[in-house]
Design brief:
Order of helices and strands: EHEHHHHHHHHEE
Shape: rod-shaped
Strand content: 5-15%
Distance between the termini: 123 Å
Structural class: mainly alpha
């Protein structure tokens, strides 16, 4: 028969006031051990094990480790909580830019329209002119612009008629002049070119690309 060596849990034999357990409690414990002994003996016999060779001891559970409790107490004593900024900031790590945001910035930069070379040329062309001549660019009325240009020309300013008076695009006009071989063109109040570059006609002065008249406009 299985024999039990009982080792009650600490404090199980006394009540909170220190009184001894009742006889009824002892009887119930003996009955439980007797029935349990029979059940274990029958089970062991089925597997060919002699119940008398088995000794079962019932002891108290090993004391629980106090490391976690100590750690909790230490954190509590320090006044920290799981959501304390001192903890959450260290866990968050360095702030990084998400790959999605970087990809969006790269896509936006790639999709931006390239600068307009014609607009850049026109802005640079007008920026080289004196302030009085630059004002012609913003005069919308053609008659008023023509009168202002004539006045400036009489004062000695160099006026490019197609661009400054007729309001043609400086970028296109300059490219067209280059394509026809012009190295200079007359300014306002100067005689116009009688023959285009490379063309000679009887009675007309040929165009000399190497001898621009004084006061003409360099192309």
């Amino acid at each position: 028969m299985i024999q039990f060596n009982s080792n009650p849990l600490a404090g199980a034999g006394t009540s909170g006031s220190g009184s001894t357990p009742s006889k009824t409690a002892d009887f119930s414990l003996d009955s439980f051990e007797s029935e349990l002994s029979k059940a274990i003996s029958q089970t062991l016999e089925k597997f060919g094990i002699n119940p008398d060779s088995v000794n079962v001891s019932i002891g108290s559970a090993a004391p629980a480790q106090k490391s976690s409790a100590k750690t909790t107490a230490t954190a509590k004593d320090a006044g920290l909580t799981p959501f304390d900024p001192a903890i959450t900031k260290s866990l968050a790590g360095p702030k990084t830019t998400s790959s999605a945001s970087s990809a969006a910035d790269t896509t936006a930069a790639a999709s931006a329209p390239p600068p307009d070379p014609a607009q850049a040329f026109n802005d640079a062309y007008w920026a080289k002119q004196p302030a009085a001549v630059q004002a012609l660019r913003y005069v919308a009325d053609p008659d008023q612009r023509s009168q202002m240009a004539g006045q400036l020309a009489s004062e000695g300013y160099t006026i490019d008629v197609p661009i400054m008076v007729w309001n043609w695009d400086a970028y296109n006009v300059t490219n067209l002049r280059h394509s026809y071989g012009y190295t200079w063109v007359p300014s306002a109040l100067q005689n116009s070119v009688q023959c285009a570059p490379g063309i000679q006609m009887p009675g007309l002065e040929a165009y000399d690309a190497n001898k621009p008249p004084a006061g003409s406009i360099t192309v």
